[in-house]
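Lecture notes, part 5. Sequence design as translation. It can be helpful to think of inverse folding as translation between two languages: the language of shapes and the language of residues. The source text, in structure tokens, appears below.
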């Protein structure tokens, strides 16, 4: 038993380092998502949740099929390439298409609505006899002749 004790501590150390790397990676990705709509966090969470279930299930199935671990991991290594490319593509898209937060979009919309209502009121003040220029078209009653 003493001869394998070093391997236990090495495995424990590797697990701690891998856990810390995952925590830092997830924090970085969540910070990266600040430039996208809030619903993206839900998509990210769903994806990571599914990845955990799928990855564990795949390892169990491959172990049941008696496929050696080294082949499983060797086949999984090339998946780093599409992940890197996807991250690079998303980063490039975020630089091309700047995200406007919903609050700013609402503020911009309310500013344009205010500007439009001010134009209508100014026109109505310039020519009050024209019913189409009235800011209160709902209150206009056609005069009876």
């Amino acid at each position: 038993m003493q001869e394998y004790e070093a391997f236990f501590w090495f495995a424990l150390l590797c697990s701690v380092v891998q856990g810390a790397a995952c925590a830092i990676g997830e924090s970085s990705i969540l910070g990266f998502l600040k430039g996208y709509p809030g619903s993206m966090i839900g998509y990210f969470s769903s994806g990571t949740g599914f990845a955990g279930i799928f990855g564990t299930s795949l390892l169990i199935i491959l172990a049941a099929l008696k496929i050696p671990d080294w082949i499983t991991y060797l086949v999984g290594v090339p998946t780093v390439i599409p992940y890197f490319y996807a991250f690079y593509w998303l980063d490039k898209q975020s630089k091309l298409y700047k995200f406007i937060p919903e609050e700013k979009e609402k503020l911009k919309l309310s500013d344009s609505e205010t500007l439009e209502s001010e134009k209508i009121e100014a026109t109505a003040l310039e020519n009050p006899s024209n019913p189409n220029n009235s800011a209160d078209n709902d209150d206009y009653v056609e005069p009876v002749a």
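The translated text above is only one of many valid answers, since several sequences can fold into similar shapes. Helices lie at 5-32, 39-64, 69-76, 80-96, 102-126.
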